[in-house]
Amino acid sequence: MIFNQRLMGYLEALKRKYDILYPECEAAFNDLMHMMQASFMARNDIYIEKDSGATDWIASGETVGMMLYVDLFSENLKHLKTHVDHFSNLGISLIHLMPILMPREGENDGGYAVKNYRAIDPRVGNLEDFKAVVSEFHQKGIKICLDYVINHTANDHEWAVKALMGEEKYQDYYLMYDDSAIPNAFESALGEVFPTIAPGNFTFNEDIQKYVMTTFYPYQWDLNYKNPRVFHEMVSNLLFLANIGVDMIRLDAIPYIWKTLGTDCRNLPEVHVILSLFRDIISVCAPSTALLGEAIVSPNVIVRYFGKEERLECHSLYNASYMVEIWNSIATRDARHMALMPQYDLPQKSVWINYARCHDDIGWGLDESKIRNLGFEPQAHKNFLIDFYLGSLDGSFSIGELYEYNPEKQDARNSGTLASLAGLEKAIESSDRYQVELAHKRILLIHALILLRKGIPMLYAGDEMGQLNDYAYKHDPKKMKDSRWLHRGRFDWSKSSPVFDAIKELIDFRKKAYGQKYIVEDQPLLIGNQHVLLIQQIIKEESEDYLLLFNMTEDRQWVYTTDLKRYGYHGVWIDLLQGKQLSFEEEKILLGPYEFLVIQKNILKK
Ligand code: GLC
């Protein structure tokens, strides 16, 4: 009944979009409808009940996420359950379990080479263990996010194995060619994702004497979405994940999923059609499940993956540009880069994921024209950032490593944990207590920049404990070539860190200050002091705005109140974090090293 009603609302759109990709495939479309119905029929009543609230939970200020590798955090899923208090204590309400679907044997790109989408990596448990985690965490009010690697499968996935055995049906699941003509033609317009550790986009397979498209590692075979069978299989797996209780499905590497010869095969229009179909299908079959897209491209391209009100795509996307801007501002001590970030109107109830670190590297994809307008030469600026976070630059507090270093182009990205990049490792090494203190403040400021803005904050497990770089990967032949393992260390339960309590306080504050409230506007404003970031927040339920001030430097900074009055703000204000009073009638406001304030006009509340 509910299913039919919902389907009616989407049927016409589904058919129209499906026809764009797979014209004249009437029977296949009907099969898709049947698959959707079967999936709905198999859905657990508990989730059907949750579906009535749709994905409202993602827009709530209460939602605070953390991402973690199960094996590094707790060995396995059974033990993960015993750490539920760590999350509750910190105030985490959404956990992204990094890839735990069964990966290929041997190297597997941190689990992003999946052998079986319907089984759990035996090293961390099985499907029953996973369901037990879901139910336990749900009871504690914690939602679960899981990766769904949609661009490629591992080369030992059942489909790939059948393709290797010569079954044409399955060879057609991938992009395979008998000679190098088409691969070469593709290559001439393609970029490279891993130019040094896995160059090129095709891998010649000796067994079947064919070239296979492998945009990422040679063992990650790109799927051929031009084949409707692939689309159906992937929809079926998507619905499977929703039905085992996954609240948020992270769609990996979305820009790459559609390939057209002669193009760079990134962000093609058909990708948007596929995502919009995924969205409609999930809205019919499992509407409380949110889709999180991973598209690490320029902001104006990322934002398109939210879709439009009348043609929605992902509920949520990583705010990759903001992450880069945070690190840029920390190194330059210049807040203007962040203040000048373009702001986008998102469809209703769509949210950014704000994060500072994750399992991947930091790529310096800054807006070059903006860099130029601020008076810097983009290449020189990029080199400055690379060297700064490598720690090779005089005066840098960071210790990191290069990732994908290309000596010819003098190009690289950076790896490292939040704490090591923020100066803690160097400060500890040099037994410099003052620098340790500054590093702690910096770590807190970076967390404040993700916890106090509009969007879902997503912490990377270990960062709340100030975890340092882990160099063990250099001795593991399966990992040594990929420096991203530097910031994928084993979670160290033996250490306590003063940043933990401070971050916990900040999360508590976020929940109290924003909670169920709705941030209508979250707008950076330029002020005279370029070292300080000012954000204006308009909160629907509050009569007075919030003003956020972040000192991006280790020095004291003053903000002239004329700057604030210019935006129409006067009177006496109170900092909601510490309770201190500030008068805009004074000439200036003082901010301590890396201090941040959330201030609101002091109207005496009854
Ligand atoms: C995503 C993941 C990254 C992985 C890649 C290939 O970008 O975040 O870790 O290497 O996809 O699956």
CATH top level label of the largest domain? Alpha Beta
Task: Specify the overall morphology.
Answer: globular
Share of helical residues: 25-40%
CATH homologous group name of the largest domain: Glycosidases
Strand order of the largest sheet: 1-2-5-11-12-15-16-19
Count of individual domains: 4
SS-derived structural category: alpha/beta
Low-confidence stretches: none
CATH architecture descriptor name of the largest domain: Alpha-Beta Barrel
Q: Report how far the terminal alpha carbons are from each other.
A: 49 Å
What is the C-alpha radius of gyration, as a whole number of Å? 24 Å
**Mean pLDDT over the full residue set:** 96
Ligands, ions, cofactors:
alpha-D-glucopyranose
Q: Strand fraction band?
A: 15-25%
- What is the third-level CATH name, the topology of the largest domain? TIM Barrel
User: Biggest sheet, open or closed, and with what strands and sense?
Assistant: 8 strands, parallel, barrel
Q: Number of DSSP helices?
A: 22
Describe, in plain words, how this protein is organized in 3D:
- By secondary structure, the chain is α/β, with parallel strands linked by helices.
- It folds into 4 domains: 1-149 and 230-299, Glycosidases (TIM Barrel, Alpha-Beta Barrel); 152-222, Oligo-1,6-glucosidase, domain 2, CATH 3.90.400.10; 319-516, TIM Barrel (Alpha-Beta Barrel), CATH 3.20.20; 519-601, Golgi alpha-mannosidase II (Immunoglobulin-like, Sandwich), CATH 2.60.40.1180.
- It is built from 22 helices and 27 strands.
- The strands form 8 sheets. Strands 1-2-5-11-12-15-16-19 form an 8-stranded parallel β-barrel, surrounded by 4 helices. Strands 20-21-22-27-24-25 form a 6-stranded antiparallel beta sheet.
- Strand 13 (307-308) and strand 14 (311-312) form a beta hairpin.
- The longest helix is centred in the N-terminal third of the chain and has 20 residues, at 2-21.
- 48% of the residues are buried.
- Bound molecules: alpha-D-glucopyranose (GLC).
